[in-house]
C-alpha cells in the first residue's frame, strides 16, 4: 500500500518536489511556449513575438539552403577539373569531394528540417502558422524560379 501512495505523489529530488510540466498534445493558442529546449520558453508577449520572428526567419532560411543544395547538386553533376578545380581534385577521382560537400549541405538541411519539425511539435498555433508562412515565403523568394533543371531534381517531400 505504501508503494502505491508513493507512486501517486509527485517525484522528489533531495526532498524537494519536481515541477513536472506537461506537453500539449493538441493545438493551443497562447504566449506560453517552450520551444526545442527547456531554457527557450516565452512568458510575455514580447518574447513570444521574438520567438515567432526567429521561427519565420529560420524557416525561410531553410528554403534558401534547400535552393543552394539543389543548385549545387546540379552544378556538381557537370564538374570537371577545368571549371571547378577546388571541388575536383586528382586525388578524389569521380568528384567525391563534390559529393562530400553535397553531403554536408544535405546534413545541414536535414538538421534544420528536423528542428522545424520539432518546433511545430510544440503544438502552439502561432508557431505552426509562422513556420508554414515562413516556408511559403522562402519558397516564393528562393525556389519559385522557372529554372526547369532545378525543378526536375526538386523533391516535394518536406522531410529532407
TrEMBL record:
Pfam families in UniProt: Ctr (PF04145)
Keyword set, alphabetical order: Copper, Copper transport, Ion transport, Membrane, Transmembrane, Transmembrane helix, Transport
Annotated localization: Membrane
Any GO molecular function: copper ion transmembrane transporter activity
Transmembrane segments: 45-65, 100-117, 123-142
Membrane topology: Multi-pass membrane protein
This protein's record includes keyword Transmembrane: yes
Gene Ontology cellular component annotations, sorted alphabetically: plasma membrane
Domain of life: Eukaryota
InterPro entries cross-referenced by the UniProt entry: Cop_transporter
Family membership noted in the UniProt record: Belongs to the copper transporter (Ctr) (TC 1.A.56) family. SLC31A subfamily.
Protein name in the entry: Copper transport protein
